[in-house]
Design brief:
This protein is an alpha+beta fold. It has helices spanning 15-24, 52-64, 88-99; strands spanning 2-7, 31-36, 74-77, 81-84, 108-112, 115-120, 130-144, 154-170, 176-181, 188-194, 200-205. It has one domain (2-205). Helix 1 (15-24) links the parallel strand 1 and strand 2 (31-36). This is DUF1223 domain-containing protein.
Length: 207
């Protein structure tokens, strides 16, 4: 299952959530991803991992949920369930809920000669088409925070998303096979998600 953490180096409430995400990194059934947002940069520390694209993604989740504001730290489980990022008991409950309802689609993602090949069997009951997304991330990075709410702290971050892009659309009527370039040597994963930051129907780490 995919767990997204919307976080910021400029947010004093985020370090416990960052540590919680790190604890999930070794669980084989979980793909935890940290997306650093940029809307706290103005308070004194510019988060070097932040991207307006990740802020836009979080706002998309808020819009889909009928919520008018965004906040950090926030975790989104499976594209549908939201929880405050430093509440481990609530997160564990959501993880168990999603474990009881496995991915709708089983897919593979293999890398050879700079190209990732994504494959899945036909899924005629898929309903509406889904987006095939390719995500690259840094496994771990430590930063000394010099200003802002976390000034003076040295913080370690896990699975820091560098790029999240659509590489295709799939209706499920036929088997899926998509090739996409993958450079840079970073770990990567492929995610199937309903259009408009909806439910995640499948995910696989690139092997």
């Amino acid at each position: 299952m995919v767990i997204e953490l919307f976080t910021s180096q400029g947010c004093s409430s985020c370090p416990p959530a960052d540590a919680l995400l790190a604890d999930l990194a070794d669980r084989p059934e979980v793909l935890p991803l940290a997306l650093h947002v940029d809307y706290w940069d103005y308070i004194g520390w510019k988060d070097r991992f932040a991207s307006p694209a990740f802020t836009h993604r979080q706002k998309g989740y808020a819009h889909a949920a009928g919520v008018g504001t965004v906040y950090t730290p926030q975790m989104v489980v499976g594209g549908v369930d939201h929880v405050v990022g430093y509440r481990p008991s609530e997160l564990i409950d959501l993880i168990e809920k999603h474990r009881a309802a496995p991915d709708r689609v089983s897919l593979t993602a293999t890398l050879a000669n700079g190209t990732v090949t994504v494959e899945a069997p036909a899924a005629p009951d898929l309903g509406a088409p889904v987006m095939v997304q390719l995500v690259t991330f840094l496994p771990e990075e430590t930063t000394e925070i010099e200003r802002g709410e976390n000034a003076g702290k040295t913080l370690t971050y896990t699975n820091i998303v560098q790029d999240w892009r659509d590489i295709g659309e799939w209706s499920g009527a036929e088997p899926l096979k998509i090739d996409a370039p993958l450079d840079g040597g970073l770990p990567a994963a492929v995610i199937l998600q309903r259009t408009g930051v909806g439910a995640v129907l499948g995910a696989a780490r690139v092997q």
